[in-house]
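Ticket 4471: requesting a sanity check on a complex prediction with zinc ion. Repro inputs:
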Amino acid sequence: MAKCPKCESTTFKLEAVGSPTKSAFIICSECEVLISVMEDIDFRKWYDKLISNHGYFENQINILKSEMKTMSEKHEQQNNYIIELLEIINRKL
Ligand SMILES: [Zn+2]
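Returned structure tokens:
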């Protein structure tokens, strides 16, 4: 993980200046020392790319949602099984 050379913090923030082509400064969140400068970033292009990648991310989110649903169904089945077992044990006591 990247560390600030001055205070060894591992959290950074991004500050952008200018429009639509911007320079972005990566700054340490703790001591505000300048870590790096990224120049002439066209945020409109970034945005367009982001929009074109949107379908991909939406797909990934839907896959995750469906996996979570399956996990939660399995969890419920296991809970019901445990309850059944407990009832059986209870009847025998
Ligand atoms: Zn720092």
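Notes from triage: Residues 43-92 form the longest helix (50 residues). Leaving this open until the requester confirms.
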